[in-house]
Every structure is written in structure tokens, then in C-alpha cells.
Write a structure and sequence with these properties.
- With 244 residues, the protein is of the alpha/beta class.
- It has one domain: TIM Barrel (Alpha-Beta Barrel), CATH 3.20.20.
- 27% of the residues lie in helices and 23% in strands.
- The protein has a nine-stranded mixed β-sheet. The chain has a two-stranded antiparallel ribbon with strand order 5-6.
- β1, α1 and β2 form a beta-alpha-beta unit.
């Protein structure tokens, strides 16, 4: 087994708070520059650009995991990550069915759907920056029903995290892992963020701009850089693990 570096929370030009420069090819190129082997595309409440980044990643030798950063009714952000694009798009259907509102580009920003050639396909008109009407536990259950991984996002942040918005991590919500932001060194996470000690902990960039891709990453000991190995590392199976 070898060490593989992963940044599992990257936005594309589809996220309204992201930059136009976060196009499929450029995300992958920046990931290679930063020495990343695995990335996840986790746009707000949508997976519409995941396929294009996956195609760009395959051509460049970077494993791209399709996902979404989903906002619950409680305004808690969670990452839903999947082994294949079909699963991510099924989760997207559930999210879209519970996502009210329409985007105002002048207020919230553009939501660009692109292809693997960095060409604009269309603009998404949904209010992707908004909260769904799904409760947190329903989101976790829906992700797991599609055999995905559900990770509590940036739990150290003072907003849009399970700890900031609920005050604690509910004992009956079965997260697969906890994510801390670049603000907390992964080696210090369990000491600095109370209540996360019963979960594996990762760190990700939450990049909305190319300069931020890979500013922090998680080192995994894996047999190969694929989704299934990430799952095994979170479980600590047969020597797979997070290296701190």
C-alpha cells in the first residue's frame, strides 16, 4: 500500500459562490500541480459538473469522486460522496425535489454547467445556494441508501456546520466521517473540536477558487486511489487508514 493525497471537498463553476475559473480541466490541472491523487467535486446541492470533471480527471490520471455538498433544513452542510456518477445523480434528483427557489445571478452568482472541454453547456436556474427541505437524518439515510459516504462538512466553522447549527453531533446520525477545514490542523482536530472523537476525521480545502485547491488535503494509506479504498480507510480495514 502507498500514501495517496485526497482533497474531498472542491467546488466548480457550478457553485454560485465559486469562480468561473473553476472549470473541469483547470480543477484537474491544479490538482495535479498540488500532488493530489484523489479529489471530490462537491458543488452546492448539485452534481451536474461532476461528470465533466471525472472525464477530465480520467484523461489526466486523477481519480475524481462525484459528490454534492447538501444543505439540510437545519442549514447543516454535509458531503455526499459516491462511487459512480449514476449514484450521485440519483442523489441529485432527491435534492432537487426538495430544493425550493430560483437563482438570481446578480444576487447569488452564476451557476455554470460545463463539459470536459471547458465549454459552457448552460446555466443552472435552481437556487443551489439555498437549503433543502430535507432534515439532516433524512439526507444521511438517502446517501447511505445509494451506498455513498456521508461526511459532516467543516465542523469547526461557526456557521453551516452540524456543531454550530445544532450545538452537537446527534448520536443517532450515522456520519461516515467528520471534516475539519484548513483552519484546524488534522493532527489537532480531536483536541480542538469537541464531540468528534467517535468518528474518523479528514481535512479538505472547500476550494471555490483555483488557488485554494489542495491547500489542505488528507493523506490516506491505500492499495489504490479509488472510492472503495477511501471507504476502507475510514473503517480502518486491513491496514488502510488516515495518516496524520
Amino acid at each position: 500500500m502507498d500514501i495517496y493525497r485526497a482533497d474531498l471537498h472542491i467546488h466548480s463553476c457550478l457553485s454560485p459562490c465559486g469562480d468561473w475559473a473553476m472549470s473541469p480541466r483547470d480543477i484537474v490541472a491544479r490538482s495535479r500541480e498540488k500532488g493530489l491523487h484523489i479529489i471530490a467535486i462537491s458543488d452546492h446541492n448539485s452534481a451536474e459538473n461532476a461528470g465533466a470533471v471525472m472525464a477530465a480527471g480520467e484523461a489526466a490520471g486523477v481519480c475524481v469522486i462525484p459528490g454534492l455538498e447538501i444543505c439540510s433544513r437545519e442549514e447543516v452542510h454535509v458531503l455526499g460522496l459516491f462511487e459512480n456518477l449514476g449514484q450521485a445523480l440519483q442523489m441529485q434528483e432527491t435534492v432537487y425535489a426538495h430544493l425550493p427557489g430560483s437563482n438570481d445571478p446578480e444576487l447569488w452568482g452564476d451557476q455554470v454547467v460545463a463539459n470536459e472541454k471547458n465549454e459552457v453547456v448552460c446555466e443552472n436556474e435552481r437556487l443551489l445556494i439555498g437549503a433543502t427541505t430535507l432534515w439532516l437524518d433524512a439526507i444521511v439515510d438517502a446517501v447511505h441508501s445509494l451506498d455513498g459516504l456521508c461526511i459532516a462538512a467543516h465542523v469547526d466553522r461557526p456557521s453551516y456546520s452540524v456543531i454550530s447549527n445544532l450545538g452537537f453531533i446527534p448520536p443517532d446520525v450515522k456520519f461516515d466521517a467528520i471534516e475539519v477545514s484548513f483552519r484546524v490542523p488534522l493532527a489537532d482536530a480531536y483536541q480542538q473540536v469537541p464531540g468528534i472523537e467517535r468518528f474518523p476525521c479528514i481535512t479538505s480545502s472547500d476550494a471555490h477558487f483555483l488557488k485554494d485547491v489542495g491547500r489542505v488535503s488528507t493523506a490516506f494509506r491505500l492499495e489504490s486511489p479509488v472510492f472503495g479504498e477511501i471507504r476502507r480507510a475510514l473503517l480502518g480495514v486491513e491496514g488502510r487508514r488516515i495518516e496524520v
